[in-house]
Each structure stands twice: as structure tokens, then as C-alpha cells.
Amino acid sequence: MPFRVRIAGLLFLAAGTLAAADPPYMGKWKLNPVKSDFGATTITFAQDGQLMEFSADGMSYKFKIDGKDYIALMGATAAWKEIDPHTWETTNKSAGRLVSTDTIKLSADGKTLTIESKGTKPNGETAADVTVYERVSGGPGLAGKWKTKNVKITSPSVLEFSPNGPDGITMAITDIKAVCNAKFDGNDYPVTGPTVPPKLAMAFKQAGPRAFETTTKLDGKARYVSTSTVSEDGKTLTEVGGAVGISERFKAVYDRQ
Description:
ten-stranded antiparallel β-barrel, 7% helix, mainly beta, Lipocalin
């Protein structure tokens, strides 16, 4: 076989291999809390008569501190009770299943709010996360606007992406056993899992050879949009995004496993 024909054949095989290769974001990724940045996010508590109103990411819900379940954000429920004038406990459920029990503590000077969240994930892992907020405005007490100061995550989430046909993706959040089988066509695809709220869906679009865009929706309404990009060395996946209609942004960095 002439030399130039052999070279042409090798180039053709190489091109076929590259075309068939999985995109670089396929694989398993674990959140790296140290590299991530959630510092731009805020939460707000406001007194509304006998009710309190909690707001975050452009969403809100009202509740009484009476130990009863109230419909909360993203289809979850929350039950609040007072431990003492500076401490509250919240029981959070999703799809009727306990997700976490949070202890919310206001500092003596009223400038810091610490939320310690404990729970057991569907895969059996225990989580004990702590988020510290500093007051931006408001007071006294719980009422006011609070900005994230630091976050401690003891059981980071693990994402796994795998091909779903020639033009699709399967996303799995392995620790909470959530799965979404989707195509890169911008259409909505349901997310399933033991603690996934009903009518939660995701839409995926490719955003270049190393990136894709995700829109998370609840009951048909877009709630979050983010773009995930793989580094040139293929070792990290960085997701940047935020709630729809809100200028606050987050950055979640994942390491390849």
C-alpha cells in the first residue's frame, strides 16, 4: 500500500475516533468546597404580621414558628420551632421524606447567623454542613437580609455524566440518587429520585466542545440557569450560574474522580 494512502487511512481512523469520543464532561465529579464560591448569595427574613417570610433566589415562603409543616422553596416543606430567643430548629422534607434538620442560631450581637444542617442522604451518607451569614440590613432578631460568609460542607455531592444516545446526556447526583435522562435539545426532561420534588425538570444545551448549559425548572417555570465547563487539562468541572432574574451568582468547582 502506497505510503500516502496509509497516512490518509490513519487520519480517517483518527477523525472517526475523535468524533465517537465522549465529550470531556462525561465521567464522575465531586464538589470541591474549597475551590467553590457561594459568597454572593443572600437570604432574607421578614415579619409579616403573625407570619415570617423567608426569601432566597427570587423565591419565598411564609411560615409560623409553630412546629407545623409549611410549603417551602422548590416544592419542599419546612417546620419551624423556637429553641430559645436566639435559636430555632427547622425540619426540612422533600417529596415527603426528611432531608435535614437545621439549627439556626443568632449571635449575641445580632450580626451573625449560623445554620447547621444535619441529615442522612438517600445513599446512606451523613451530612453535617454549616453556613455562616453576616447581617446586611434589618434587625433586631432574625428579621433582615443576610449574606453568605462561609460554607462548610462535610459530605460533598458527586455528579456523574454519561452519554444518552448520540445527542443526549444522563445526569446522576449519586449521593441523593437523582437521575435525569435528557437530550441536548433545550427541551424539559424529568428528574427522578427519592427526595426530588414532583414536576422538577432539566433542559440541556451544548455550549461548545467543553461546556453545556443547564436550566432547572419546577412546574414548567425556570428557576436556575448555569453553565458547566471542563478545564483544558480535563481535571475540573466549573459550574457558574444563579437563580433566574437574580444577579447573585455562584461558582461550584468539581474535581474529576
